Amino acid sequence: MAIVELKNVAKRYDSMPGKKGAEHANAVEDFNLTTKDGEFVVLVGPSGCGKSTTMRMIAGLEHNTAGEIRINGQDVSSVEPRDRDIAMVFQSYALYPHMSVYHNMAFALELKKTPKEEVKQRVQEAARILDIEHLLDRKPRALSGGQRQRVALGRALVRQPQVFLMDEPLSNLDARLRVGMRAEITRLHRRLGVTTFYVTHDQTEAMTMGQRIVVMRDGRIQQVDTPYNLYERPVNRFVAGFIGTPSMNFLQADHHGDGLGGQGFSCPLGPRLQAALGEGGQRSSCWLGIRPEHLHQVEESSGRGRLEGVIEVIEPLGPVTMVQVRVGDTLVTAQLAAHLDVEIGDTLGLAFDPDQVHLFDIESDQALGLEPDSAASSTQATA
Ligand SMILES: Nc1ncnc2c1ncn2[C@@H]1O[C@H](COP(=O)(O)OP(=O)(O)O)[C@@H](O)[C@H]1O
Ligand SMILES: [Mg+2]
Q1: Taking residues 108-126, what's their average pLDDT?
Q2: What biological-process GO terms show up in the record (predicted)?
Q3: Same structural domain for residues 216 and 243?
Q4: Are 178 and 219 in contact (CB under 8 A)?
């Protein structure tokens, strides 16, 4: 088991397609993170934000161009990948087609001249954990996608590494299998307690699996936090929009007297929002963020925020219905009851609790009025 430390780590590739100018020259910039022993850390962010590059630097497959990577206190910059005691699982987990499942899993150990008995014992143990004992004699072509994925995991497992790196290992599986496998990986982690970095671009996967989540954008960490804190206290508009599904709605709001508002919506200001708006000087406008699940169809709404618009889309999902209404020039998504008595083209009024909204600076996109403890955790994340 291990504590992995990244300090001011950066990666600059000599040629980076589509990135010009010094400001955007780095694939990863100023990356700071220290894991706990046995922690499950998820890196999440849109394609190209630097997740794989970060993983490859931890594995030693790429050299960091700045900063320091330490494993259990030891600077690993001069340690070869094979000596780092790290096992990786990739999205494209090419199994050797001519080898049986057993030999696919045993291969790395045999290369290291591990005694035959021990190889056998480790492969069988991994196969038992992954429930693939009955497949050990098969060739990869005789396996389903999910079974192949298990073999790829097994191959990493038998090495009993001190760190697991998993880079989008479930992307090739269909949605249902992905949900099953993600629970299985979580169980596996609980059982083995190996420090794990897990990469995904899927915020649901990140939220369900990560003990801590690193949200990245353009090579930079935006926030490092628990799933709960990312949802409740996003530090900026990017994180707010990225975490949560469907995404948070953002309305550009004017500040007048004791309220925020714009075309088709208004929000009264209690002490919390007043204080948030006053932060760093008075503001005449801000972004008002409202999650779809915080919009409700209610008649009476004194003391509440309100918005109104024409329905453009109705999506019944079973337990809930997603409705999109045009408010001014913004399309707002609301998560409403399963059975709705509305039609496309109807005007719909919705209410929300001002205590549940998020405010963001109109220019910097930074969250306004975050409580001190969350401000501390986010500073820690980016310091
Ligand atoms: N070998 C490389 N040479 C040049 N640029 C690269 C190389 N690998 C990745 N990049 C660039 O670095 C950035 C981050 O890539 P990557 O780490 O693969 O992102 P992610 O895994 O988050 O999708 C991207 O802009 C990508 O184009
Ligand atoms: Mg990647």
Answers
A1: 93
A2: carbohydrate transport
A3: no
A4: no
Residue 366 DSSP symbol: B
Ligand (nearest to CA of 168): 2
Report pLDDT digits (tens) over 56-67: 999 999 999 999
13 within ligand 1 shell (Cβ under 6 A): yes
User: Is residue 18 scored above 80 in pLDDT?
Assistant: no
Mark which of 203, 237, 271 sits at the end of a domain. Answer: 237
CATH of the domain at 63: 3.40.50.300
Tell me, what's the pLDDT at 373? 56
Which of residues 237, 252, 270 is at a domain's end? 237
Atom of ligand 1 nearest to the CA of 46: 22
243 plus 227 within the same structural domain = no
Q: Range of 245's domain?
A: 238-382
Contact at 8 Å (CB) between 294 and 332? no
pLDDT at 24 over 80: no
Query: Quick one: how far is CA 81 from the chain centroid?
Result: 26
CA of 203 to the centre of ligand 1 (A): 20
Q: Are residues 225 and 333 in the same domain?
A: no
Is 78 near ligand 1, meaning CB less than 6 Å away?
Answer: no
Query: Residue holding tokens 């400001």?
Result: 23
Query: Which own/partner pairs from 181-186 qualify as long-range (CB within 8 Å, at least 24 positions apart)?
Result: 181/146, 181/149, 181/150, 182/208, 182/209, 184/130, 185/153, 185/209, 186/40
- Centre of ligand 1 to C-alpha 52, Å, is 7
Q: Could you give the angle at the alpha carbon of 191 between the alpha carbons of 231 and 138, nearest 5°?
A: 110
